């Protein structure tokens, strides 16, 4: 039993405080009521609207496929460029945030910077870049780059710090400088995890870039948003199916890359 | 080392308690003791990774851990400290990092003579045909050889090895010991930490016995036998 459930259920003992689960149930019910879950009319109306919406999705309208293919290509490009830019910035900043490589005084500063970047959601970044650079895929790409920097930066410094200290001591023992230590021991040792997270981030950014179109930041999301607003649900379904197909292809691609670079090396550790 | 005391934090009890130790150039010695006796801590002081809380330690006439000394002291930790994602050749080349500085080393463009020396060292340890294999692809014994090749490329004057033969079978241990003897004959001072009394008796001309952070005995030549070392530890 996890510590959370132990706390909630009084450590599973029959003599534990019986009121804890009741308290949690009451808090849950209050929160749900506050959010409109118990409004009978609202639920029934919602289900009816949902059924109308779902029936309006079929059959998908294939006439928009050529337009959507172009937009999907733009979405994939946005994710590719955004992830790559974010990665290029995340690697040096994560090295500067890793306590086993970077000077101690610098670590909290860089970590705070990465924390600040992460505190702002990707949609807000996209809005800010739309205001700065205008509507279009460039704003979305920059939003993805900054978002990637925030998340990869954190994931990476945690991985870099997890490198076996014995390896670092052995390489330091050769007279290597701190920069050489990072280049020849820390990064190669963490490479499998870094690549795995980069692939995950790329997949995630393809999904995210679809949403960014909602705020005018380019890609297939722009069309999805306009189909929703104009009640063209059959065209929306075509866009959703196309996104799904691309995601499946990307998953297959990532799996192949992982098999090629990660499986054998990781298994012998 | 003169009256060296060391602990891992100011509040914790000392692991080394007044160790006196002088090692001559070209010595081949082992430091033996049971688990927790302070053997690895002694190596960490010699490497400069742990500062003595009392007393004085010097390696090659200077304070341990300075860049100048680090470049001349090879170290093979218990798990060997190889970078598993790098090839055997690249791991051996790590030994040259103190000589190849700046952009040249960061781009991986090592000078031809360093690459040749790394290949030569791998040949010496019997791994010429596995130079391009990643370290994770090598067997335990082969990895040990790569770690030795790294110290050869480093041109270390002192080699500190920490229980790095403990995972090998008897036959392979003898191969590696022969290799280390050859390295020692080239003038490299060797200090090997082990808890294996047979290994210590086969290895060195000298053995220092440590128990609970104190030096119990310092024996040489004919006195370095498994039986006599066992008696000292009981």
Instruction: Characterize the biggest β-sheet of chain A.
Output: none
Strand residue percentage of chain B = 15-25%
Low-confidence stretches of chain B: none
**First CA to last CA of chain A: what distance?**
30 Å
- The total of helices of chain B stands at 9
CATH architecture of the largest domain in chain B: 3-Layer(aba) Sandwich
Number of strands of chain B: 9
Helix content of chain A: over 70%
* Structural class by helix and strand composition of chain A: mainly alpha
- Give unreliable regions of chain A as ranges: 264-269
Largest interface, by Cβ-Cβ below 8 angstroms: which chains and how many residues each?
A: A-B, 26 and 35 residues
CATH level 3 topology of the largest domain in chain B: Rossmann fold
How much helix is in the residues of chain B?
A: 25-40%
Radius of gyration of chain A: 24 Å
Task: Give the spatial strand order of the biggest sheet of chain B.
Answer: 5-6-7-3-8-9
Which short descriptors sum up this protein?
heterodimer; A: 269 residues; mainly alpha; MetI-like fold; 11 helices; B: 234 residues; Rossmann fold; 2 domains; 6-stranded mixed sheet
Report on the structure:
The complex is a heterodimer of chains A (269) and B (234). Chain A is mainly α. Chain A has a single domain (72-263), classed as Orthogonal Bundle (MetI-like fold), CATH 1.10.3720.10. Chain A has eleven helices and no strands. In chain A, helix 4 packs antiparallel against helix 9 and helix 8 packs across helix 9. The longest helix of chain A is centred in the C-terminal third of the chain and has 35 residues, at 178-212. Chain A is globular and about 70 Å long. Residues 264-269 of chain A have low confidence and may be disordered. Chain B is of the alpha/beta class. Chain B has two domains: 1-72 and 157-234, P-loop containing nucleotide triphosphate hydrolases (Rossmann fold, 3-Layer(aba) Sandwich); 84-154, no CATH class. Helices cover 35% and strands 19% of the residues of chain B. Chain B has helices spanning 39-47, 67-70, 88-93, 102-106, 112-124, 140-154, 170-185, 197-203, 226-233; strands at 2-6, 16-19, 28-32, 54-56, 73-76, 158-162, 189-194, 206-211, 214-220. In chain B, strand 6, helix 7 and strand 7 form a beta-alpha-beta unit. In chain B, helix 5 crosses helix 6, helix 6 runs parallel beside helix 7 and helix 8 packs across helix 9. Chain B is globular. Chain B starts with a strand and ends with a helix. The model of chain B has no long low-confidence stretch (mean pLDDT 88). Chains A and B meet through helix 8 and helix 9 of A and strand 5 and helix 6 of B.
